[in-house]
Design goal:
CATH class of the largest domain: Mainly Alpha
Shape: globular
Number of strands: 29
Distance between the termini: 69 Å
Number of domains: 5
CATH topology of the largest domain: Topoisomerase I, domain 2
Structural class: alpha+beta
Largest sheet: 6 strands, antiparallel, barrel
Length: about 700
């Protein structure tokens, strides 16, 4: 009997695939790459057309030995790494290590780990795509030339352990630029005028629009006074009523970027966590023997395409028609991909649309269930009919002064029956429907309320907002977003403050030096062009050596100049004004992955470190002489405790406030959800009104 060896990347995937292929096939895992550039040296011969020097990765010797032993017993070897550039490169390295003929049809790819997809892929093996391999090699060599040339320079001139990456440096520069925008922002005054109108005991809100038929902004109190002086009485004429029907289309199924953004907004997941859980769902979950054992639940999670296969569309159609009725079926219009999308794989979707989240809940962890539910609902909604909204705009006038009131209500839910996309804009709220108003009638203004406002600076980047901006600008690719965000934090170039990125002093120093001596590294246009060049290599239009040479010929000259002219930067630790309780030396502020912390200046002889405790202005209700401070768990969750810990072990997940309960005199706390906050008693049932 013929014996076939299949090599995949992970053991979890190997178990799933082996079950589908049967006894003739033995499936082994390479555990990712088996060869790479050496860590101890550049590994790129710049004098010989940038030829890379590959070595077996440390620790992969036993894995490679096991694969070679299995390969000798096999009649045929199939390389089934992930269906992207990285996977193609892994297959190529395996072919070299196992002496597989590169002209043989040894490569199989699949977008989902299901029985049909796996069996079909083995009916259509192909040769290794060297254009994909070359694109991956070019990226790896580019990053090595940048990192292994600039990093030693930074070690010498700034601080040991620093490094500089191509895409990561652009991300840090974007965060620094946003911080500078915020610092330089000058708020501008503006005003609004709101009014509560009444018609036949029905009340609704309206706001000032303009006068004499033209929209008018209110920049000062004088502008407001002019409007108020012109009004006469409280009666407003309903001059015009516009009613129309508006259709709201569903969002397309997820790409890598949109999944990371939505998981951050709806599930509070970091990008890295989203990709880790998605990998688990893709590789397979044990659903039990009755449900088919280990089964891949979603398609490949690194994609920039919104394309959906006809099979998946038909599955969704059957589910929607049976569950909701024919009127909820969407059309066949395909969602448009973003400009520059490679469209190599389908969108992220469930492998079986009929497998709803509730039916899988017992087999999934909490995080797996929540992410699968998000992916499943988004996909099903994407195949449903648009929602239909009735909208209404009312024009109200008094002496030529115009107020407008708007409202909307859902006429037909359509896709909103299943899923509604979230937004970064927390102020977006559903309008309320207005009472029936006829043109020519009058309404009464119960109160007219002017409000002063000031323009706000642009917000700092959250992970979701940064990923979205990087995608819009064409920086990086689906596989690079999560590692990029993780790397810039580990290097200490940025920190998270209230889940938003802020640059550190170290990050600003390093980026200033890179901007001075290597401006192309942090230039967005240059980085976007480089991504386009890598795509061109993948498409077989450009030789990878030419792309590297175009970059390195200029980079090499700037490197020589930097080595001569870059001045040494001394980063001094900021004194904290307190002494170390262990050795008596002065404590200093240092910057770590999660922001500043206190450390002993006598390091490494003394390794005492302490978190910087943020007082919230509340006395400890337990020991009476301590102060409540904000603390963080190992997973960065905020809680509140006494600064006399461990003598006092007071702890609260909810933020204490400096008032006692009027009912029982116990401590009041502020209990927050994503949308509201409420003050309530920590002991009795006293509660105050919710604040949005």
């Amino acid at each position: 009997m013929a014996q076939y060896l299949v090599i995949v990347e992970s053991p979890a995937k190997a178990k799933t695939i082996e079950r589908y292929l049967g006894k003739k096939y033995k499936v082994k895992a390479s555990m990712g790459h088996v060869r790479d550039l050496p860590k101890s040296q550049m590994g790129v011969d710049v004098s010989n057309e940038y030829q890379p020097k590959y070595i077996t990765i440390r620790g992969k010797g036993p894995v490679l030995k096991e694969l070679k032993t299995a390969a000798k017993k096999a009649d045929k070897i199939y390389l089934a790494a992930d269906p992207d550039r990285e996977g193609e490169a892994i297959a190529w390295h395996l072919a070299h290590s196992l002496n597989i003929d590169l002209d043989s049809e040894c490569r199989v790819v699949f977008n989902e780990i299901t029985k049909d997809a796996i069996k079909d892929s083995f009916k259509h093996p192909r040769t290794i795509n060297m254009d994909l391999v070359d694109a991956q090699q070019a990226r790896r060599i580019l990053d090595r030339l940048v990192g292994y040339n600039i990093s030693p320079l930074l070690w010498q001139k700034v601080k040991k352990g620093l490094s500089a990456g191509r895409v990561q440096s652009v991300a840090v520069k974007m965060i620094i630029d946003r911080e500078n925008e915020i610092k330089e922002f000058k708020p501008e005054e503006y005003w609004s005028i709101q009014s509560l109108f009444t018609k036949d005991k029905h009340q609704f809100e309206g706001s000032f629009y303009g006068y004499d038929g033209k929209k008018q902004g209110l920049k000062s109190k004088d502008d407001v006074d002019k409007v108020l002086d012109r009004l006469k009485g409280k009666d407003f004429l309903v001059e015009k009523v516009n009613k129309r029907e508006r259709r709201r289309n569903p969002s397309p199924a997820f790409t890598t970027s949109s999944l990371q953004q939505e998981a951050a907004r709806k599930l509070n997941f970091r990008a890295r966590k989203t990709m880790m859980v998605a990998q688990q769902l893709y590789e397979g979950i044990d659903l039990g023997k009755r449900e088919g054992g280990i089964t891949g639940l979603i398609t490949y999670m690194r994609t920039d395409s919104t394309r959906i296969s006809n099979t998946a569309k038909n599955q969704a159609k059957d589910y929607i028609e049976e569950k909701f009725g024919k009127e909820y079926l969407g059309g066949n219009k395909r969602a448009k991909n973003n400009e520059g999308a490679q469209d190599a794989h389908e969108a992220i979707r469930p492998t079986n649309a009929l497998r709803d989240p509730q039916s899988l809940k017992s087999a999934l962890s909490r995080d797996q269930y929540r992410l699968y539910k998000l992916i499943w609902e988004r996909f099903i909604a994407s195949q449903m009919a648009p929602a239909v909204m009735d909208t209404m705009t009312v024009h109200l006038t008094n002496q030529g002064i115009e107020f407008r009131a708007t409202g909307s209500k859902v006429k037909f839910k359509g896709f909103m029956k299943v899923y509604i996309e979230s937004s970064d804009d927390k102020k977006k709220q559903q309008d309320k429907w207005l009472p029936n108003l006829e043109e020519g009638t009058t309404v009464t203004a119960e109160n007219i309320d002017p409000n002063q406002h000031f323009t706000q600076p642009p917000p700092r980047y959250t992970e979701a907002r940064l990923v979205k901006t990087m995608e819009e600008k064409g920086i990086g690719r689906p596989s690079t977003y999560a590692p990029t965000l993780d790397t810039i934090q580990r290097r200490g170039y940025v920190a998270l403050d209230n889940r938003r990125f802020v640059p550190t002093e170290l990050g600003e120093i390093v980026m200033k030096l890179i901007e001075e001596f290597f401006p192309e590294i942090i230039d967005v246009a240059f980085t976007v062009k480089m991504e386009g060049d890598l795509d061109s290599i993948e498409e077989g239009k450009t030789e990878w050596v030419n792309i590297i040479d175009q970059f390195y010929s200029g980079f090499d000259k700037r490197l020589e100049k930097a080595e001569k002219e870059m001045e040494k930067v001394e980063i001094r630790d900021e004194p904290a004004g307190i002494d170390c309780e262990k050795c008596g030396h002065e404590m200093v502020y240092k910057m770590g992955r999660y922001g500043k912390f206190l450390a002993c200046s006598n390091f490494p002889d003394c390794r005492n470190t302490k978190p910087i405790l943020k007082k919230i202005g509340v006395d400890c209700p337990n020991c009476k002489d301590g102060n409540i401070v904000e603390r963080k768990t190992k997973k960065r969750r905020t809680f509140y405790g006494c600064d006399n810990y461990p003598k006092c072990e007071f702890i609260s997940w909810d933020k204490p406030i400096a008032r006692n309960c009027p009912k029982c005199q116990s401590m009041l706390v502020e209990k927050k959800t994503k949308k509201t906050s409420q003050v309530q008693c920590s002991s009795c049932d006293y509660k105050e009104e919710e604040q949005k």
